[in-house]
Amino acid sequence: MKYSNEQLAQLIEPTRVHRKVYLDPDIFDMEMERIWGSAWIYIGHESQVKTPGEYATATMGNKVPVIMVRDKDSKIHVLHNRCGHKGAKLVDQASGKVSAFRCCYHGWTYRIDGKLVGVPNMPGYEGTGFDKSDPQYSMQKVAQYDSYRGFVFATLDPTAPKLTTWMGAGMAECLDNLCDRSPEGEVEVIGKPMRYVHDCNWKMFTENLNDGMHPMVVHQGVVDAALQYMKTVPEDSAERSEAEIIPPFGASYEHFESTDLFAYQYGHHYDGGRTSIHAAYSVPNDYEQLMIAAYGQKKTREILTFNSHNTMYYPSLTTKTAVQNIRVVRPISVNKTIIESWSFRLKGAPDNMLKRTILYSRLINSSFGMVGPDDLTAYYRMQNGLESNGSDWIEMHRHYGRDEDKGDYIHGLLTGDLDIRTQYKAWKDYMTREQLAQEVA
Amino acid sequence: MTTIISANPSIRDIEQLLYQEASFLDKPDLDRWIELYTEDGTYWMPAREDQEDPEFELSHIYDDHVMMEIRRRNFVHPRAASKDYKIRCSHIISNIQMAELDASTGDCTITSNFHALVNYMGEQRMYGGSYTHRLTKDKDGYKIRHKRVDLINCEEPQKSMIIYL
Ligand code: FES
Ligand SMILES: [Fe+2]
User: Fold this and answer.
1) Substitution candidate for ligand 1 out of A80, A81, A83, A91 with most atoms within 8 A of CB
2) Which chain B residues in 108-127 lie under 8 Å from chain A, judged by CB atoms?
3) Which among A102, A114, A406, B103 is least surrounded, fewest beta carbons within 10 Å?
């Protein structure tokens, strides 16, 4: 059973949400249509397809298979991964390189920009009304696609605002910062992604990103373990300084209370700004010198003191600018989500910067890590605990009424629920948009 | 060149060390497991087939002694939710071969295949792949200087796992 717009709107109140948003497969299907079928979804990075014919595949929402490919003029396209004949997926690898797309079934072939060029045994179509040059038989382009600083997004909605409008200046600044940390102003993907199965609804992951009330509880085990270990090694030892990367994961309430949260349109938000748990991380001197040579003193300091720690381009992309890691949300079903982690190299920066990026990602993003599994256990228990009909509602009051509207954005603190309220405001807008609702009816 | 291990006189020692490691991981008893490693020992589980480097590319695990020490304390911490669930494992190691031997020191590289049946969070899982152990010999016998675990599904999505394999 599908929900009317009115019924959907009733699931979201200013300070609480109905548990059905995490549990009901019908709502999940509607989210895939109305949020994931309408928002700009992160597809991949241009550096994954460096030369003409290189491609990388992705899924938009839980179903729509697409291909990001570089054509012979070096332009990047996002095409539906569907043969124009009977619909077979044209490629079924995560990535590869082709001189043309050739369907495995009846051998139709397409130029790398998607145009149909070859149909075997053409005479059989003569006089049938079939026209090979009719664009409907070519690979279809996704409704809109565009990239920002090398990050490629696409939307299935032809009426969606332009990428930069949807992203907004404040969120664009975060991707700028990630790239500007390269002396050449560019980043490139390193290796393949690590993919982590989350046995929970996709929103539990996106709502935890800026949950400043959980680290000291959820990550207490690993923090204590690191502190205990640190007591066993000398004050100034290399062992001790290596272990020091762990305790910030369980920083105090006071610390998170003094971290800013910036909430934007369309559910986007980030924490940090000019202070965050990572602001104290110093950068190596050789790197700093390269930055100063490229940007000058003032601009270098601006770049390096800005840190959008957990940054959400709702609903699909999250980035950490200071450590060049991103995580991509790939919803599978109402209670299953895959999170992809990708790491980036700062072009022109010394290798020790990449080492730091990789170390950081391995610590927090690995399914075999000491951080992620504790978060996941919490999501898993929510997913299961919410099946209880003891109460239908989940509260999100923290700091309600204290957030400051600054025009372009709303300012709050990391310990508040502004991030979650922001996501649900966007959720409600996407889910109850008139135009889409009519299409569905 | 690969030499069949039965041709090497230290075969029993080496097999025993691998089996002993497996039995500590079966329980799991990380306090005793860590003692099998040298002070500069490392444990690496790549995230990509044929991955060559642990530091400049993502891995599922790349632990040195510091991280092993933290992990073994974390493993028994009462306030780590992922450790609320009992974990039991059964490792089978086979196809043990000596890939390299330094005849002057006795240091060697051993390759093997493994299957690990793991029961965790109410489900039974099967992990499998190959091990590469670099062993070093001191006066007390062999220790592990490096272990590489290549899961056959290392590039596939993985679920939470709280123990070394
Ligand atoms: S389905 Fe692709 S050629 Fe027939
Ligand atoms: Fe967390």
Assistant:
1) A83
2) 121
3) B103
Which range has the top average pLDDT, A277-291, A412-426, B7-21? A412-426
The answer as to whether B86 is a domain residue is yes
Supply the pTM of this predicted model.
Answer: 0.95
CATH class assigned to A169-430 = alpha beta
Contacts of A45 (CB under 8 A, 6+ apart): A150, A151, A152, A187, A188, A189, A342, A344
On the question of a cis peptide bond just before residue A315, with omega within 30 degrees of 0, the verdict is yes
**3.90.770.10, 1.20.120.1200, 2.102.10.10, 1.10.10.60: which CATH number matches A41-147?**
2.102.10.10
Asked if A308 contacts A315 with a C-beta cutoff of 8 angstroms, the reply is: no
Domain layout of chain A by residue ranges: 41-147, 169-430
What pLDDT, in 10s, does the model give residues A200-240?
999 999 999 999 999 999 999 999 999 999 999 999 999 99
Evaluate whether residue B3 is within a structural domain: no
Of B38, B27, B16, whose CA–CA distance to B90 is shortest? B27
| Domain of residue B91, residue span | 11-151
When divided into structural domains, chain B yields a total of: 1
A237-285 pLDDT per residue, tens: 999 999 999 998 888 888 888 889 999 999 999 998 865 444 554 789 9
User: Read out DSSP for A275-290?
Assistant: --TTTT----HHHHHH
Distance B142 CA to ligand 2 centre (A): 39
Residue nearest (by alpha carbon) to ligand 1 atom 1: A86
**Which chain B residue has its CA at the smallest distance from A247's CA?**
B70
Alpha carbon nearest to ligand 1 atom 4, residue: A106
> Is the pLDDT assigned to residue B3 strictly greater than 60?
no
Ligand 1 center from residue A74 Cα (angstroms): 27
Closest-lying ligand 1 atom to the alpha carbon of residue A90: 2
Considering only CB atoms, B82 lies closest to which of A195, A354, A377, namely: A377
Angle between helices A418-431 and A25-34 (to 10 degrees): 80
Instruction: List, as ranges, residues 142-161 from B with C-beta within 8 Å of A.
Output: 155-161
